[in-house]
Specification:
Elements (H helix, E strand, L loop, with lengths): L3 E2 L1 E3 L2 E3 L3 E6 L2 E10 L3 H19 L3 H17 L1 H12 L3 H22 L5 E4 L5 E9 L2 E5 L7 H12 L3 E5 L5 H13 L7 E3 L4 H10 L5 E5 L2 H14 L2 E5 L4 E5 L5 H13 L9 E7 H16 L19 H17 L2 E4 L16 E6 L4 H4 L6 E7 L2 H9 L3 E2 L1 E5 L3 H10 L4 E4 L15 E2 L2 E2 L9 H4 E9 L2
Parallel strand pairs: 1-5, 8-9, 8-11, 9-10, 11-12, 13-14, 13-19, 14-17, 16-17, 19-20
Antiparallel strand pairs: 2-3, 4-5, 6-7, 7-23, 12-22, 15-16, 18-21
Helix pairs in contact: 1-7, 2-4, 3-4, 3-6, 4-5, 9-10
């Protein structure tokens, strides 16, 4: 009998009914059984966070530093074990899973350091005998809602700054991948986090997430997920006058110019489009290629795509793991059919892959002959599906790259300093990559986009303080 992993509410592990967490590489394998919170339990978690906030917000910086640092150390020490858990529940290859766990450890380590660097400003007033202090204070109870595609990194980059800056937290992980979040919550509790400061409520978005949105006691919500749900988070937050931070979709372009290094271009696009099974908001699914290099690039990319090894996430030679679940697989297959119907040519892949275990395996699909008005070029597919769009020159490439409702990440492959510099300045994306994949970011610098991709302050790095704190200005008279 598989043990039940319970929710954490006010320092106690609680729960009764659970749901099986299924391995997408082997649907006969149960990763674990995880409790689902009720509306009442979610309300209790919010109340616990509210009650714990005053003491935690005034806790000493050494206490917070020690807890986050200890958490980082344990995550890193267990990276193999936690990487396997992540790969089993989400489908990333094992190297990708271990890499993501390592990143989570680095995030906690970074914010452990930030606790010791909390700073403000002291300025003279325009009035004689008066001074001014500008400080940042914790926001309050933070509601965190995370997606399934980065089961440990995204919870880490939201939980760590929330706690570092003195907030209390209620977190709801994606229903598909509760295991990784449960593990880091367990580590934080054993690292000495006071009861009620961090509360874990697993379960359905329609139950847990909706209860969080309706609560007037949540001061801020940090959300990563779909555009449609993000709009609901925004509407509910405006009604309650709360702060909100949204990271949503992407339809990220990679521009390949005639002067590009062909090997660099092919590898950059293959990694951007297909690794992590294309299930990244920073994945590049629009490949915009100038006509001089187009044919050679397409031939080389087709060969690279054709040879990608699809299989069980834990197998040594696997490069592309399974799609996360049957719903996502259906969505991918539907878009592949749409691309064909729209007139694009499916050059490679797009078919189910048989393996020794039954799982949601899909050979990456590469379309050519696409244009930027096709649905496969405008709508986020969130799978290993990419479309090549042929253009005349750099100017047309830039225009096509910016012709999207999204603006998260954009890449260019070129040996021209002139074009690279111009693209960095004129790309309508929050993050720009030159000769590197669009998917792949550092933990100590800002993450976020423009247009329909993001709303609110940036995540990660020192910029996280913009969301998780509120500015106070104090005037002091010497008289």
């Amino acid at each position: 009998m598989t043990a039940l992993h319970k929710n954490l509410i006010d320092g106690e592990w609680v729960g009764a009914d659970g749901v099986e967490n299924i391995n997408p590489s082997n649907i006969d394998e149960v990763v674990g059984v995880y409790a689902r919170a009720s509306v009442e339990q979610t309300k209790q978690a919010i109340a616990a966070a509210k009650a714990a906030f005053p003491a935690w917000s005034r806790s000493g910086i050494l206490e917070r530093h020690a807890i986050l640092s200890k958490t980082s150390q344990e995550i890193l020490a267990r990276k193999q074990e936690l990487g396997e858990l992540l790969s089993r529940e989400e489908g990333k290859t094992l190297p990708e899973g271990i890499g993501e766990v390592t990143r989570a450890a680095q995030i906690f380590d970074f914010f452990a350091g930030e606790v010791l660097r909390l700073a403000g400003e002291a300025l003279p007033s325009v009035r004689p005998g008066v001074s001014v202090e500008i400080t940042r204070e914790p926001l309050g109870v933070i509601g965190i809602i995370t997606p399934w595609n980065f089961p440990i990194a995204i919870p880490a980059w939201k939980i760590a700054p929330a706690l570092a800056y003195g907030n209390s937290v209620v977190i709801k992980p994606a229903d598909l991948v509760p295991g990784s979040t449960w593990a880091i919550v367990d580590i934080l509790v054993r690292a000495g986090l006071p009861k009620g400061v961090l509360n874990l409520v697993m379960g359905k978005g329609s139950v847990v997430g909706q209860t969080m949105l309706e609560s007037p006691d949540i001061a801020g919500i940090s959300f990563t997920g779909s555009v449609s749900t993000g709009k609901r988070v925004a509407a509910a937050s405006i009604e309650h006058g709360r702060k909100f931070q949204l990271e949503m979709g992407g339809k990220n372009p990679t521009v390949v110019l005639d002067d590009a290094d062909l090997k660099v271009a092919v590898e950059s696009v293959a990694q951007s489009a297909f690794f992590s099974t294309g299930q990244r908001c920073t994945a590049s699914s629009r490949v915009i290629v100038t006509e001089g290099i187009h044919d050679a690039f397409v031939d080389a990319l087709c060969e690279r795509t054709r040879n990608l090894r699809v299989g069980h996430a834990l197998e040594k030679d696997t490069e592309i793991g399974p799609v996360v679940d049957p719903n996502q697989l259906k969505q991918d297959m539907d878009y592949i059919a749409i691309g064909r119907d729209e007139g694009a040519e499916l050059r490679v892949g797009g078919n189910r892959v048989n393996a020794e275990t039954e799982g949601y395996f899909l050979q990456p699909a590469l379309f050519t002959g696409a244009n930027n008005q096709m649905r496969i070029a405008r709508e986020e597919i969130f799978g290993p599906v990419a479309a090549v769009i042929k253009v005349k020159d750099y100017e047309e490439a830039l225009a096509v790259a910016n012709d999207t409702d999204f603006g998260l990440s954009a890449g260019i492959v070129t040996t021209s300093l002139k074009h690279a510099t111009h693209f960095k300045r004129n790309s309508e994306a929050g993050m720009v990559m030159v000769n590197v994949p669009t998917a792949g970011v550092d933990f100590h610098v800002p993450f976020g986009g423009r247009k329909g991709s993001s709303y609110g302050p940036r995540e990660q790095g020192r910029y996280a303080a913009e969301f998780f704190t509120i500015v106070k200005t104090a005037y002091i008279s010497a008289g």
